[in-house]
Design a protein that fits this description.
By secondary structure, the chain is of the alpha+beta class. Strands 3, 4, 5, 6, 7, 8 and 9 form a seven-stranded mixed beta sheet that branches. Strands 12, 13, 14, 15, 16 and 19 form a six-stranded antiparallel beta sheet that branches. The relative contact order is 0.15. The model has no long low-confidence stretch (mean pLDDT 91). InterPro entries: Adenylation_LigC-like, ATP-dep_DNA_ligase, DNA_ligase_ATP-dep_cent, NA-bd_OB-fold, OBF_LigC-like. It catalyses: ATP + (deoxyribonucleotide)n-3'-hydroxyl + 5'-phospho-(deoxyribonucleotide)m = (deoxyribonucleotide)n+m + AMP + diphosphate. This is ATP-dependent DNA ligase.
Length: 338
């Protein structure tokens, strides 16, 4: 069977910590988790062009990334790669630049390809020389992927994802590599795993840091809060939204219900439109509260324009930290002073 798009990628389930040996079939293999777009590359004939680039949801987007199409000559026919699409801008990985690239086309796409080039980080091999490899254990697929890069001398925009079997090295990546913009954590695979399209059969561990933000609104009601909408003060003293929390634990919700105060007139977020998630257009109904409580939150590294893209976790209230002591807008995961 020859693979043709759309092919559902194999997915990962979130874990809080690095799993112990035996958690997945075979030896554990650790890779950095990059903050980009999941994508599959096809050089399958016959095809309308030398390369097809499929998004996680199955749409074709090769016209948005002409530099990858131009580099298709470096790849053999009958190939399917699974990996992460990233974009470099100002000498670092930029999710915002990637989003801009993903909606460009024509002359704009060609210009942006020069200004903010894309790279494809390959971390799995699904087909080689027209032979489908979904049933082949991951360890063997990885060996063939490494050999592919060696045999064809592949270089930018094609990149082989780093990998280690050493737990100590994986922990080092989780703490040090995630300080680089665009690296979120780890993806863990088992060397004996087959490729299971659409299944959440891998593990992912994001680096999480503790910091503070101001509770400016909630979902639910003041007496039964469900999630928090959090903010930080910018240089002008304006409260800027920075994150939404995951659903509150029942004990935390009960405690907050006794301490939240409904907002009076003049709340800084009056008239502000909130959405259900970062980048979404679906409106979110919120209840404004007096921005007087400081929350300690656990955040990952995916931040854009001063806001965290993924939901944060509420840890506790910080009675020892004043609103004025909370790190300012755009300060990232820097903890409050004191």
């Amino acid at each position: 069977m020859v693979l043709r798009p759309p092919v559902e990628p194999m997915l990962a389930q979130a874990r809080d910590t690095v799993p112990a040996p035996g958690a997945l079939p075979g030896e554990l293999r650790f890779q950095p988790k990059f903050d980009g777009y999941r994508a599959l590359v096809f050089t399958v004939w016959p095809a309308p062009g030398p390369l097809l680039l499929q998004s996680r949801r199955g749409s074709l987007m090769q016209s948005r990334f002409p530099e990858l199409v131009d580099a298709a000559a470096d790849l053999p026919d009958g190939l399917v790669l699974d990996g992460e699409l990233i974009v470099w801008a100002e000498d670092q990985m930029s999710f915002e630049a990637l989003q801009r690239r993903a909606v460009s086309d024509g002359r704009t796409a060609a210009r942006l390809a020069q200004e903010m080039p894309a790279h494809f980080i390959a971390f799995d091999l699904l087909q080689l020389d027209g032979q489908e490899l979904l049933h082949v254990p991951y360890g063997e697929r990885r060996a063939r992927l490494e050999q592919l890069f060696t045999d064809h001398g592949l270089s930018a925009p094609w990149t082989l994802c780093p990998e280690t079997t050493e737990v100590a090295t994986a922990h080092e990546w989780l703490t040090s590599w995630t300080q680089v913009p665009g690296v979120e954590g780890l993806v863990i695979r088992g060397s004996s795993q087959r490729y299971l399209p659409g299944a959440r059969a891998l593990y992912k561990v994001r680096r999480r840091d503790t910091t503070e933000a101001i509770i400016g609104a909630i979902t639910g009601t003041v007496r039964q809060p469900q999630t928090l909408v959090l903010g930080r003060l910018d240089q002008t003293g304006a409260l800027r939204p920075v994150a939404r929390s995951t659903p509150l634990r029942p004990d935390a919700a009960r405690d907050l219900a006794q301490r939240l105060t409904p907002a009076g007139h003049g709340h800084p977020w009056e008239g502000v439109r909130f959405t259900t998630s970062w980048g979404s257009r679906t409106p979110l109904d919120v209840v404004l509260v007096e921005p007087e409580l400081v929350a300690e939150i656990m955040v990952d590294t995916a931040q854009e324009r001063g806001s965290w893209r993924h939901p944060v976790r509420f840890a506790r209230l910080r009675w020892d930290v004043a609103v004025s002591d909370v790190p300012p807008f755009n300060a990232g995961a820097e903890p409050a002073s004191g």
